[in-house]
Design brief:
Oligomer: heterodimer
CATH class of the largest domain in chain A: Alpha Beta
Shape of chain B: globular
Distance between the termini of chain B: 17 Å
Strand order of the largest sheet of chain B: 1-2
CATH topology of the largest domain in chain A: Alkaline Phosphatase, subunit A
Radius of gyration of chain B: 23 Å
């Protein structure tokens, strides 16, 4: 890890800091693990019964009414005779066939109200109480690897999601659009920023990682990412994330946001646009990872599911239980993991939502332990300090 | 001291000084700010030519009557173009305004009542919502702003209420239409706009409030208020509604109005708004005493936003010489452009803000843009600001004012001596200016 002191020494020694950049200390450093973990957060509350419908449930058709058929020209893609995938998720369907996709259904954090923002807070802090923790559970998990010489975590896109915010320094990456300053200028800028530790630290990190990223990404580094969620842009972002993670050294854990899931109205239309973006984005991530896909686990999560019954505007309102996806070469796939609560009126949570029967943190814990090899005590004491009763889910990874 | 306070006023409460602003502020920075609250609001020149939202609403309605495909086509072309015009006009207003405190209040309240073009149906109305429902009310009463922000078609579209139908209403009984209640707007008013998430309401309260708001939609061409707010009796849920233990008798459009008025006067609302205001202008973790004072002012003045803004200016905590807040990308970019003066290429600025992740009227959720340093400061954004500074400095000509003069106009004694020295000793004028624009002093307020 490059420390503030080293940056300042470099800056004071004129060309020192830049020389260090040229040598790229990152490439010399050992990586924390050869496993990769990507958390994709679907913001807005994805309808779990649209993502992974349950046509095998006797109550499904009647309950979902006009949301049961999601595409007039294509059926839901059958998984195991009971569960299915949204018709547009064709890439994910092929992963299922290769046993590289697993579904966790009827799942939710400990959150039981219906605010996006509080639900996201708990999803990302991993606590039971909103705002009880200011840092993200993934950042705390990265603390386990803090001794590693490189930053193990990577936030992809503009801004760092809460799940990665915290004490453990992480790398960030977003496509470049502006002129690249001269090293001499950056050196001076580091010097005049020294009195502002936060800015100075961020800038130092930005300078340090840029040179490395440039080599790894080629054209993607300057690809035009529209701020309005253009479909190709997200796929490019995901592919870039994959490439950065695929390198022999460097980041191992990344987080990526996809928004636009708050489908209060005309859900069929909205999702017929959103689902292909999700599918393409995940496939681009796989492409970017290349051979490293074999060591990868991707978790696709959302802050809550939505009402099981359609609302008055052909959409769904904020609900509770939802679906989560696990994909990657490291996943023991081809399985739906669920203690299925059923879709009868009496089975629904508060008479309206899919009842959560699995705490997402059981999956998070299982992944951290089995996939990343984080010590169990560290996971219980430091990463998820408020949920010892929730046992980690086992057998998530291929042997 | 008071000279420094002029710079603090311009950065913390304004949008960063323009070349002659510090001189203009003179020795009474509080007076300069309060004067802006009392002065007649000036409609920014850039906004004079923009069409009323009403036109976009009616065009939307015409398109949807043709087909969904037609609507999608217009959203992608016409409405998107309209959003760009609105966004550029807002940037132009911010960069040129002589009432930067007032403009900041528009930004603050506009963000509080976010309508975002991220939701395609609202993309042509988001700018109009702020111009029509927020801008005229920033020194008025909160309950008026709340009513106007809620009943504007932009919000009714963005949070789906325009299509919400009372299950027992005349229209709700006609199953052919497949329509019913949508609770999105009701929930976000309680959670985001008034009481706050800990305001003590339940899921049942959300539904009851949603019922009160049924019928709140926009006027079609054949209605008396085409393209503007229209109350549609036929979709309004009949019967009593109980919100937080208080019964509202059936009274058509007045139910929702009464509920909003009542919500605007609640202690929880006062505390929620006071906290957000203090966090925005003072610090990510605002001093509790400052929040208390603002909340008290809000209650004592029955939500007078002019008094509230004045109370903010008069808080000793608001004049801490340390610049604690990290400017958002929009604040930073606008501040830099104000500092250098001269012409701005607004199309290019839009590209810059795209890469900074903060295009006007494109917040990611109804909660608006985040207001904390952790959301905006990271290695990538820090480097990006340096690049922006280099790009801006790169296109200055030799006749333009130099960095030392700009520093005197924009940062004064807020700029540490060693930084000024670096700027003075820079290799060339462009590097000097880039250093100033990328300095921490310019990035904070």
């Amino acid at each position: 890890m490059i420390t503030r002191r080293r940056i300042l020494q470099g800056a004071a020694g004129a060309a020192g800091a830049i020389a260090a950049l040229g040598n790229s200390p990152l490439t010399l450093a050992a990586a924390a693990t050869d496993r990769r973990l990507v958390v994709v957060i679907l913001r807005g509350g994805t309808d779990g019964l649209a993502l992974v419908p349950a046509p095998g449930d006797a109550n499904f058709g009647q309950l979902r009414q006009r949301l049961a058929v999601q595409d007039p020209n294509a059926d839901n893609i059958d998984l195991d005779g009971f569960f299915a995938l949204h018709p547009k998720l064709t890439g994910l369907a092929s992963l299922w066939r290769e046993k590289q996709l697993a579904v966790v259904h009827a799942a939710q954090t400990g959150y039981r109200s219906r605010s996006h923002f509080d639900a996201q807070d708990l999803l990302e802090t991993g606590h039971n109480t909103v705002s009880a923790l200011a840092d993200g559970w993934l950042n705390r998990a990265l603390g386990y690897f803090a001794a590693a010489e490189t930053r193990t975590g990577l936030a992809v896109g503009y801004g760092t999601p809460l799940i990665l915010q915290g004490k453990t320094p992480i790398a960030t990456w977003a496509p470049r659009r502006l002129d690249r300053p001269e090293p001499e200028f950056l050196n001076k800028l580091m010097m005049i920023s020294a009195r502002d530790p936060e800015i100075s630290r961020a800038l130092g990190e930005g300078i340090k990682t840029e040179a490395v990223n440039r080599r790894r990404l080629g054209h993607l580094e300057s690809s035009e990412i529209a701020g309005t969620g253009a479909p190709r842009a997200l796929a490019d972002l995901a592919e870039a994330a994959g490439r950065l993670l695929s390198a022999d050294t460097g980041a191992r854990v990344a987080a990526l946001d996809i928004d636009g899931w708050d489908t209060h109205g005309y859900q069929i239309t909205a999702l017929s646009y959103r689902m292909p973006i999700l599918d393409r984005t995940l496939m681009a991530l796989k492409a970017g990872l290349g051979a490293a896909w074999a060591n990868t686990m991707v978790m696709v999560v959302t802050e809550f599911g939505r009402t099981a019954v359609p609302n008055g505007t052909n959409g769904t309102d904020h609900g509770t239980g939802g679906a989560m996806l696990l994909l990657g070469g490291a996943v023991r796939g081809g399985r739906v993991l669920a203690d299925w609560p059923g879709l009868g009126k009496a089975d629904l949570y508060e008479g309206r939502d899919l009842k959560p029967t699995m705490d997402l943190r059981a999956v998070f814990k299982g992944v951290l332990m089995a996939h990343l090899g984080v010590d169990a005590a560290y996971v219980e004491d430091t990463v998820f300090p408020a949920s010892r009763a929730i046992r980690p889910l086992e057998n998530l990874t291929v042997a | 001291m008071s000279r420094n306070e002029a710079y603090i006023a311009a950065h913390r409460f304004g949008l960063g000084p323009k070349p002659d602003e510090i001189r203009h502020i003179g020795s009474d920075p509080r007076g300069w700010l309060i004067e802006q609250l009392h002065a007649a609001p000036i409609t920014p020149k850039a906004m004079l030519e923009l069409p009323a939202s009403r036109e976009n609403v009616l065009d939307w309605w015409d398109a949807v009557m043709i087909s969904v495909a037609e609507l999608v086509k217009r959203i992608r072309n016409d409405y998107r173009a309209l959003w760009r015009r609105e966004a550029k006009a807002r940037l132009a207003a911010a960069i040129t305004t002589e009432q930067p405190f007032r403009e900041r209040l528009v930004w603050f309240w506009g963000n509080h009542f976010t309508v975002s073009g991220r939701k395609a149906v609202a993309i042509g109305m988001a700018g109009g919502h702020e111009r029509e429902a927020i801008r005229p009310h920033v020194t008025g009463r909160f309950q008026d702003m709340l009513y106007n922000a809620t009943s504007h078609p932009g919000m009714l579209f963005y949070l789906d209420n325009y299509a919400s139908v009372g299950p027992h209403s005349y229209r709700g009984g006609v199953t052919y239409y497949n329509q019913g209640l949508n609770e999105n707007l009701a929930r976000e008013i309680l959670e985001l706009h008034t009481l706050g998430v800990d305001g003590g309401y339940s899921q049942q309260d959300v539904r009851e409030f949603a019922k009160m708001l049924t019928g709140w939609t926009f006027g079609r061409r054949y209605n008396p208020t085409p393209g503007a707010f229209h109350f549609r009796e036929k979709t309004h849920e009949p019967g009593d509604k109980v919100l937080l233990g208080r019964t509202f008798r059936p009274d058509g459009v007045n139910e929702g109005r009464a509920a909003l008025e009542w919500l605007a006067g609640q202690d929880a609302t006062a505390r929620h708004l006071a906290f957000k205001l203090a966090r925005h202008f003072i610090a990510d973790q605002p001093p509790p005493a400052a929040v208390d004072k603002l909340a008290r002012t809000f209650m004592e003045t029955e939500g007078d936003l002019m008094e509230l803004a004045q109370a903010l200016v008069n808080l000793p905590e608001a004049w801490d010489p340390m610049l604690r807040k990290f400017k958002t990308p929009q604040e930073y970019v606008v501040g830099a452009m104000r500092a250098v003066g001269g012409n701005t290429d607004y199309g290019e600025l839009m590209s810059v803000l795209t890469s900074f992740g903060q295009l006007p009227f494109m917040a990611l959720s109804p909660a608006g843009w985040p207001d904390k340093e952790t959301a905006w400061l990271n290695p990538d954004s820090a480097l990006r600001r340096a690049r922006f500074a280099v790009s801006v400095a790169g296109r200055r000509s030799a006749d333009d004012p130099g960095a030392v003069q700009i520093a005197a106009n924009s940062t004064g004694d807020l700029l540490p001596q060693n930084v000024l020295q670096q700027i003075t000793e820079a290799t060339n004028p462009k590097e000097a200016l880039a250093l100033l624009l990328a300095s921490p002093t310019m990035q904070r307020r």
